[in-house]
Amino acid sequence: MSLSVSISINGEVHAIDLDDPRVTLLDLLRERLALTGAKKGCDRGQCGACTVLVDGRRINSCLMLAASLDGSEVTTIEGLSNGNALHPVQAAFIEHDGFQCGFCTPGQIMSAVGLIAEGHAGDDPERIRELMSGNLCRCGAYKGITEAVLDAQQAQKSGKRKDVA
Amino acid sequence: MNRFDYIQPKSVKEAVAAASTPGSAYLAAGTNLLDLMKIGVSSPARIIDITRLQGLAEISWLPDGGVRIGALVRNSDLAYEARFARTFPSVAEALLSGASAQLRNAATVSGNLMQRTRCAYFQDLASACNRRKPGSGCDARDGENRLHAVLGWSEHCIATHPSDFCVPLVALDAMVEVEGPNGARDIALDALHALPGATPERETTLQPGELILGIRLPARSATYASHTRYLKLRDRTSYAFAVVSAAVALEISGDTIRTARIALGGVAAKPWRARAAEAVLENAAPTPEVFAKAADLALADAVPSGDNAFKITLARNIVARALTLAYDGTPKDMPALPASPFSPTLGLSHAG
User: Fold this and answer.
1) Which domains, and CATH codes, for chain A?
2) Using one digit for the tens of pLDDT, what is the confidence trace for B297-325?
3) Which of A130, A131, A142, A149 to mutate to test the interface with B (most CBs of B within 10 A)?
4) Sheet-wide strand order for B256-265
5) Which of B42, B129, B176, B341 gives a 20 to 30 Å CA spacing to A139?
6) Which is more confident, A164 or B343?
7) How far apart are CA B99 and CA B102, in angstroms?
8) Chain B partners within 8 Å of A118 (Cβ)
């Protein structure tokens, strides 16, 4: 069987023929579209390394069938920066050492972008930690991650776009 | 994951007709079903993707003050809907204490009701599990079972239902609207999940092909808004299933409790309504003694199913604590750590 879906990914519409309905969004991104920023950690929705935005909401791309996503808009880590100008969340992760090995980082950053857009954390680090709990970091960079999210949220509020060049 | 036929019906009628073929399964967000398919625990031949059905993702307020939650409303959308969170705060708190932000953004309310147990032996194809494979036995009985059931279990199955959301829902008399090959009907949520008995593979009372269309909370349950809590003990404070949990709701008049609603989570194969405990609180003065008595009654029939006698004590304590906090009043703002007994609103910080 063949399923045709049209999915906008980082602003570009892709017409995709799926020869197998089992393809997850994560596998579509990584294996078909060579967008390897989203990582396959657990592949079971437990680690958050595959987090992307679908229609502006952060979700686990490993637990979503591509076949279900006809007409959706997907944003991945590759779609965040504006040319060489990093997204404020990307810049804040660098500034605050929000990672060590970097494997979980694309998921952390996409989750943080989603968290800030949701607007439920305020400037409370406890709420940031709670709402970031779906992203595991085996290096334990949580302190820097929390600071980066707080700082990026502040930066986005004040409208400045940091460039780390 | 097995290969399957993928069907995207255009209407509820089409969905129900498609699902009447044996081997079919409804797919909503898939946060549980796809996971189980990846590990081979579920292997449906046909997937009926209901996510594109129109009209099932609305939160509708009923003329009498009750609410109808469409089957495809996402967990996070319900928890953060201002009027819903104000009217049914313990339901919102339960939702936000479950899973992760990503999963709550995807997972639907009907999927939450239909999620399967997280018993490790159910998920491990090499283990005996009567729920997964009837008649094969139950390796949990002599296995790692500290998190298993203490109420309503049988020698055939000691698994628990993992939902947080269902616990305040069952306390607040939620009704489930379903449609199936033989028409539409309503089921009390309390009657949706089955206890294992000799047939643990029959997890719900839904008939083949029946589809959940929505969940209703009656207006009567909104009268508890000012005195209701959900508390959940976990092995870690976030992104973990309950060891035990309790949803309580009190109707207070002056210095007296008029009525009470109590349900427990993490203790049985279904969200566990504790009616005898509710009865002892009716028209009682809210004292530590009566809260302790209610907690004792809630666990009166509890029996360890393995290395989990500690859960009975924990559950008793969490009921008493939830009653005390509910009497103090529903918090004005959602706690930073929803449902946590270690919430900083109680003067204890979780992390420095």
Assistant:
1) 3-79 (3.10.20.30), 88-157 (1.10.150.120)
2) 999 999 999 999 999 999 999 999 999 99
3) A130
4) B228-234, B242-253, B256-265, B272-273
5) B341
6) B343
7) 8
8) 76, 80, 101
